[in-house]
Amino acid sequence: MIASSVTTPRALAAAGVRWRMRRHSHAAVLAVLTLAGAARLAFAQPAPSQESLARCLAALRSSPSARRIADSTWTRHVTGLTLDTRIIEQRDAQPEFKLPIWDYLAVMVDDERIDDGRRLMREHRATFDTIERRYGVDPHIVAAIWGIESNFGRGMGSFDVLRSLATLSCNGRRQAYFSREFLAALRIVQKGDVDGARFLGSWAGAFGQVQFMPGSFEWLAVDFDGDGRRDILHTPGDALASAANYLRRARWQSGGSWGMEVRLPPGFSGRGEGRKIQRPLSVWHTRGVQRVDGAPLVRAGQSPATKAGLHLPAGPNGPAFLVRENFGAVYRYNASEAYTLAIVHLADRLRGGAPFVTPWPTDDLGLSRADRRELQRLLASRGHDIGAPSGVLTVRTREAVKAEQLRIGHAVTGRPGQRLLRALREP
Predict the structure, then answer these.
(1) pTM of the full predicted structure?
(2) 3-class secondary structure per residue, 196-246
């Protein structure tokens, strides 16, 4: 999913943006597949300049934390780095709109990603089997992370990681954090795990097929193929094993599930509940909560003392879930409940599971990537200059959507859904 104009989930987390769901019917997340979803953290500060960047990097070089960086590494990869004003624009932008959870899942867990994931799991079956044995992590979860973080390695970002992190180290909030990440990136290059001349990733410094920040890479990346390099950019085995190792360290419970979709009894209020408030399944059973297929909450051989928390991403009128510790492990990979739900749902679909049973509380569901491309072709056929259909909701696409919404008589929001797509299909 990560194109150069797209903000990644890991990049948003790295920038300190915790894009969680509001737990009501208008739940929304930051749009990670649109230019409008770029994280904008507005604050007053002096205008950045090349001179200020040079002074900042010189001060960083003289700090104790930079002692592990050889002079030759610094000279080759830092001397001459220039300010990347695109990073400033990404960082300082306020979100122009947010994706409802049904929009987010429509594009994250679409038929294309499911089909690609199943095919790639067959192609890399030996790798996935070995990773499962070695780390005890569900391979479908690992594949889902691969698919959502980088569209299975197809889109890892096109920003120069060293330049991005240098810019963020010397401008704006969290400079201490990004300075640590910048030095970690230099150590990675110095060690030879990544070629500094081709070190590309997201605007906030996350990189590779599973989008690690450099500090996480140093701590948790794995040389799965034993070639002496931990190459999460070009080697799927290294990337997938690194993600599994991350989840294992995030307290993934081997053999356990992430949770289940459930049906709430009439009038049930989820007030005061949440994924962190873990209660025994026996308590949920007493309160009338059932599996969505009507089966008992506690299956044969399962302890009624098993704990789970109630997760209502769109409020009590939408799909409901009892989530367990493994849901929390995925959440620790990227601190977003929407992202976590997308990962576990995609994993279920990859193993042959069905879509959620309970419908989302909306009469205008979201668009898959194929739907978005069709929408863009239809907009172009009506004379809108939006460029080649890409599935990315660019500024020009949103402006064209607004124009068509105004023409048709829909609410002018710039958000395209199934209702607009159906209207544009009509002659």
Answers:
(1) 0.87
(2) HHHCEECCCCCECCCCECHHHHHHHCCCCCCCCCCCCCCCHHHHHHHHHHH
pLDDT tens, position by position, 10-41: 544 444 433 333 222 222 233 333 333 333 33
Secondary structure percentages of the chain, helix, strand, coil, to 5: 45, 10, 45
For residue 137, CA distances in Å to 29, 232, 256, 347 come to 27, 18, 9, 12
Q: Which residues pair with 320 in a beta bridge?
A: 262
Contacts of 220 (CB under 8 A, 6+ apart): 212, 242, 245, 246, 249
Residues 6+ apart with CB under 8 A from 374: 389, 421
From CA 178, how far away is CA 41, in angstroms rounded? 15
- Residue 109: what residue type? V
Taking only the tens place, the pLDDT of each residue in 269-302 is: 888 999 999 999 999 999 999 999 988 888 877 7
- At residue 46, the pLDDT reads 62
